[in-house]
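Below sits our specimen:

——
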Amino acid sequence: MRHIESAGAIAELAEAILGDRHKPLVLISTTGDGAFAFDPDQIAREIGTEAEIATIATGEATYALEHALPPKSHVFGGAARSYPADFGADPDWRRSILRFPDRHTSDVLIEDALSQVVVRSLATAAPRRTWVSATVERVSGASGNVARLANGERAMIVADSFPPYLSLTEALVEGEPVEGWLTGRDLAPEPANADLSCFEAGMTTLARVVKVTSQRAYLVLHPAGSEIPLRRRDVIPGADAGENADMQIADVVQVGHTVRVRVLRTGTSLGLSLVGVDAEVPLVAPLPLLRGGTPWLREGINAERTPVTETADAQPLEVTSPDPTPPSPAQATATPTPRAADAEALAELRDEVRELRGAFARLGRELRAGTDLETLDRLRDESTGLSSELHRERALRRERDAIISGLRQELRDARTTRSDSVGAGRTEQRAWPNGDDWLRYEVLATWATRTIAADKSRHALSEYTIGPHFLQSMSDLDERQLEKALRTVVDVVTGRVAEIPGRQLHRLREGEGGSDPYVVRADGAISWRASIEVNAPSARRLHYWQLPGGTIELSRVVLHDDMTP
């Protein structure tokens, strides 16, 4: 906490008020005799680390501050105010209401600062990412992939960082490790690099069959890699010597099969062969799909793939028949007999032409149906429109937050501070038929005065019940503690408690250890604990139950060390 007594330090203070900060700044001035009407130490204890605190002596220093800041935004004569973290971006005095000690309490000033923390965090908070290791617990394309973290909690494995040509489900194995970025309860693995240079000539590894024709089979070592063609001699033993002539490639391999292959290298070219693969040779592990993951292929596990078929649009290649006139003996002697390799090459050429014609036919049908290019253009236009709309919504949200902050401060400035003592409150309570009716009235009145009209629909009071020990636990609270307890109850039943860092919301555990199980009642209700006071002696806490249907049951107001639900 810094104290400003002279005009020489005002430039630094003004720079702090108008500069870029991450926290609100509460500035408290002294009275004319040098005392403090707002207790800086008490305010600092209750706000904790949520805001910065500074004090200034009324006189030469406050006069200099008035000239260094925009109009109506300084402090003097014992008054105080809280400047939002982004006050310099919009230095309107209505965003930082001046609080006078004869009209406002320290609680109002504290609430000003805490409300500015909430607005700032809602506008700028970014989700935290952490790189973690986990174990795959469930692999299911229908209900989602689940991993168990090191602390025992579960996370959904999502494909946020995965390219569309890779299958996340195929990359996961139940019981095996997985690594990725953890954001909230989502675990996003990253794809591994497909470096095929690690496969050297003579190695034996696994490959996936992705296409089969009459003359070739096409395999991949990684989904991101190129398809590697295998001719008959690379698939059928003895084919290059004319053996097994009646055997087809489809008799040996099918699309989706995982097969052992032998790696071939010719310079920088990579080839594969199914012939001559030794079943006793140790396998070189296939590449993983995930960074830090397991190999994507496992022997004996095939993929469910739709075979590539030739379509009706693919017409056979027309080959011009040779001249039927028989050659003369001289011509017959001069003309060499075609080799078997030439016939094989011609058959392969026919096969490839049929495939290309089929591919062109499929592409034509898709374009005529309005897919591909038209769909991409439409999606691109929709994306551009949504992006522009998002920018407009963000600008409107910033403007709305500024207006709401100013209106909230004006409302707090205008409303009458409750001045009834605890005794008077108990007398008012006796005027009601029962304590439950009195408490519901007090909660409603606190909500009505604490919530501006624009927020009443968004932060409406939800359904809640009053536990059998709740009223008794409030009986020894003084006026100030009662006000704080009622505000905390309002934050709980409106759902705002999770948005306010000062409430320190967390679930109760059965023991003091961080790994002890959470407290859950027999009816499924979950026990929660929120702070009524912070950094105060014998600080109070609110214990409540959240029932399975979402209803809140107020349990007890307890001291800091009381962990009983």
Notes: The chain has 14 helices and 19 strands.
